[in-house]
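Note on ligand handling. Small-molecule inputs were canonicalized before submission; formal charges were left as drawn, and no protonation-state enumeration was performed. Where a ligand contained multiple stereocentres, the stereochemistry in the source SMILES was retained. For SUD, this procedure yielded the string shown in the input block below.
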Amino acid sequence: MSATRLTLPSPAKLNLMLHILGRRPDGYHELQTIFQFLDYGDEITFAVRDDGVIRLHTEFAGVPHDSNLIVKAAKQLQEQSGCSLGIDIWIEKILPMGGGIGGGSSNAATTLLGLNHLWQLGWDMDRLAALGLTLGADVPVFVRGHAAFAEGVGEKLTPVEPEEPWYLVLVPQVSVSTAEIFSDPLLTRNSPPIKVRPVPKGNSRNDCLPVVAKRYPDVRNALNLLGNFTEAKLTGTGSCVFGGFPSKAEADKVSALLTETLTGFVAKGSNVSMLHRKLQSLL
Ligand SMILES: C[C@@](CO)(OP(=O)(O)O)[C@H](O)COP(=O)(O)OP(=O)(O)OC[C@H]1O[C@@H](n2ccc(N)nc2=O)[C@H](O)[C@@H]1O
Ligand SMILES: Nc1ncnc2c1ncn2[C@@H]1O[C@H](COP(=O)(O)OP(=O)(O)O)[C@@H](O)[C@H]1O
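Structure output:
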């Protein structure tokens, strides 16, 4: 008999660089960015129901049940596949929301892959990634599960193999609105496209950083603090700030200096998502 219950990881991502090339007619911005996963994230448990009902049992502060990306992903997949089964879902949420580490997008991707498995739909990655894109620009990379150079709004993905250092990720206690940053008149929107692969060294800047650092003093402080120890970078539109270290011990040493007002976590960078490693082990 096939499994009816499954627990899967839902990892975070970092944007190792992010360049904004221009604005499309629909208002969205054309980007070039490198996504890498962290071996750190939420854990989602799924249990099949035979009555077709989709129910997320864990409450999220400020996110109504039907607006949760987990529920949206499950409903879309059920509708588009014509599946008559339903699902009970619980999540152990440790990823900060609105921090630029992609928790919501990752949760959506884990849901798509988990339900494809439990409902035995047999959808391939292209189809799941295309559905994922309708939920958010960052969902496809989590569906495919490999570190990638991304173009367009993040949906054109080329697998890459950056180094996999240990990272210290600082979590300033502010949520940055992606829409607000992309509508700031001071945002750099004309970075020249990188045409060479792999992306040459020296291109690791994030074009959102100056605008985010100007608007959010807490992010500025985090960048200054981490900058005393390593190159401090912003992921996505923030608020999280990260830096790489050659070993866990060195990342832990800096992490130990953090206070209650500025927390963080240490995690290993990974080019294959822990979600995919777990799914592979089930086959
Ligand atoms: C820029 C990234 C990099 O990873 O930031 P983070 O969300 O991770 O911080 C993502 O691609 C974010 O993608 P996604 O998560 O889908 O963006 P949303 O929150 O839906 O976007 C909110 C708003 O930001 C603007 N927006 C977003 C993405 C983009 N490429 N161009 C834009 O102009 C649009 O006005 C959009 O309505
Ligand atoms: N399952 C989910 N996890 C996190 N955020 C969610 C989820 N579903 C909906 N959201 C909404 O999406 C927003 C962005 O969340 P998230 O993906 O964690 O941040 P970011 O895009 O900055 O990395 C949240 O502020 C929240 O309102």
